[in-house]
Amino acid sequence: MHHPRILLIDDKIESSRALSKLLMLDGYRVNSTQTGEEAFELLKKTNYDLIISDLLLPGVSGMDILKQVKIDSPGTSVILITGNASAETAVEAMKAGALDYISKPFNFERLRIQVAKALEKNRLVTENQYLRRQLHGRYRFDNIIGISQAMQQVFIRMEKVASTDSTILILGASGTGKELVAKAIHYNSPRAEHPFVAINCGAIPADLLESELFGHIKGSFTGAVADKPGKFELANGGTLFLDEIGNMPLQLQMKLLRVLQEHEFERVGSSKKIRLNIRLISATNTDLQELVKSGNFREDLYYRLNVIPIHLPLLRERRGDISLLTRYFLEISCREMKRKPISINAAALQAMENYSWPGNVRELENVVERTVALTDSDVITCQDLPPDIAAPCLAGGISHPEVSPEGIDLNQTLAEIERQLIHQALELGQGIKARAATLLSINRTTLVEKIKRLKIENR
Any idea which GO molecular function terms this record carries (predicted)? Predict the structure, then answer.
């Protein structure tokens, strides 16, 4: 349990002792000193949650301490106490950043309230900073899993556009991670300290979408009982992510186009202009060009949105990433369910790699989570997988890829088969390359070369 640390600075020893005891009875850790010089020495060694200082001290004054603390540690709250209060001094103290200015003899209950208020403010600031660090960590580019060539191209494009303010259109099927990419771009951009606001244009009825986007004023329509800011207003200074933009009604498309051109908008029912400073990232799982041809999407808006396109591949188009993603989601699921680490054997992993994954990465994540929740074993086998994924494995045969009407990448497919067989051989050979090479009827040096070329982890 964290016990907040308070530094008390008062040259009156008796009053300092009394106040220290009262604060310690409330569960605070208190250090006290009689001079500003001693206070500066303590501040060099210890981080304090709150400083309570007499204004008039011999030598360095409470005001000097306040000003230096606000330079060295802006988040630390300072309360000043004085026996010679004046309105002018109080104003000066508040302008310099004091949380409060209390006159002697002071009411201890008031001081307790201000101490609690200051410490709660510090807790919220610290918590907010922690959450921001978590967000920055979670949405770093290297936390989007992928070693396949298709994903490397995505990473290159993301790195190039993150530092710009260019409008981005993310194209990809459901479950490919469009919002994850949008967040990663935002949290690696100059706008990272400002809001990331997302809205799914396909999940909100058309008659409510305008109000959700632009906000409304009280009385603008039935049910508008109070003013409400929209997503554009909430995202000001940051990034607005419009998911499933292809589902936006035509009448709203025109309004969106005007907003992007003029960088201002009005709430529904209002004529007051609101200036706009956002980065717009939109996404769709539909072919916008086909929607333009059919008259269901404005061509001028399409070109306004499609400044920098980012295409996300289907999971079956990046099979080399399935093993990495499976292990990543296994680790996450085990941690969230407070389970010991679970592994997956070669046959089950091959079944995962051979499956078509119509739901893409989202489906893979759900399958892993469900499997971890339902299995009691420390090793996932084919028997633990859903029937549609495990069927070829349980039948004892090898699931062979087929040539679809769209064609097939033969070199990539052969590399995937080769990778799967090497994984199995290493598993059976307990990671010893010489044994694996014997099982595959090749030389050990040939196996080592293939492992390097195919970037296979020896697990």
Answer: ATP binding; sequence-specific DNA binding
